[in-house]
Write a structure and sequence with these properties.
Shape: elongated
Strand content: under 5%
InterPro entries: Homeodomain-like_sf, HTH_TetR, Tet_transcr_reg_TetR-rel_C_sf
Organism: Flavobacterium qiangtangense
Helix content: over 70%
Number of helices: 9
Distance between the termini: 70 Å
Radius of gyration: 19 Å
Structural class: mainly alpha
Order of helices and strands: HHHHHHHHH
CATH topology of one domain: Tetracycline Repressor, domain 2
Keywords: DNA-binding, Transcription, Transcription regulation
Protein name: TetR/AcrR family transcriptional regulator
Largest sheet: none
Number of strands: 0
Pfam families: TetR_N
Length: 192
């Protein structure tokens, strides 16, 4: 009689995600993954698949968790500009508090350039962020909370573009105060 594979698949994917986050896709070995997940390689292959499939599941888990958290965090906020501010502040917190930077941004530069499957997941995450912020920007313009003369799409692109720059800046300089000052300046610019 075959022995059942006994492990929590969601927990295993979450543990694998942490390894990929820390070491990157190319720097992670199967041994790293099985040790972190507390399983042997045959259990991994039989339940999840190979390293690439595990990476796909990890990236999906990461991006879907971020999307759900953003909606949960912003939905109760009635003022669109306050929701935009909260999103920017939350982004700053993640940028300056996550020891390994943003997994989606790291993945974009390491893997998505050559892997269409990963690229689709990252694009979906980016499209979600764009649509969420664009909706808030449009509502803020309609309510007069934002008085800039630029269109909502351009302003949304402008906001989102800051996040990747802040990630790079923080990785290099490790200066939380400078990121916070840039975020405050961005909010002041949007409100003009």
């Amino acid at each position: 009689m075959a022995r059942n594979v006994e492990f929590d698949e969601n927990l295993a994917v979450s543990k694998a995600m942490d390894v990929f986050w820390r070491k990157g896709y190319n720097g992670t070995t199967m041994r790293d993954l099985t040790e972190a997940m507390g399983i042997n390689s045959s259990s991994l292959y039989n339940t999840i698949g190979d390293k690439h499939e595990l990476f796909i599941r990890s990236i999906k888990h990461y991006t879907e968790t971020r999307m759900n958290e953003a909606v949960k965090q912003l939905d109760p906020i009635k003022s669109p500009i306050k929701a935009i501010e909260k999103f920017v502040q939350s982004s700053v917190y993640v940028i300056t508090s996550e020891p390994n930077s943003c997994l989606a941004i790291k993945t974009t530069f390491e893997v998505a350039v050559t892997d269409e499957q990963v690229q689709k997941i990252i694009k979906r995450d980016n499209d979600f962020t764009y649509n969420l912020l664009n909706s808030l920007v449009q509502k803020a313009i309609q309510k007069g909370e934002i008085t800039v003369t630029e269109d909502a799409a351009m302003l949304t692109d402008y906001i989102i573009n800051h996040f990747s720059g802040w990630h790079e800046f923080f990785i290099i300089h490790k200066d939380k105060n400078r990121i916070m000052n840039m975020a405050a300046f961005l909010i002041r610019q949007i409100k003009q």
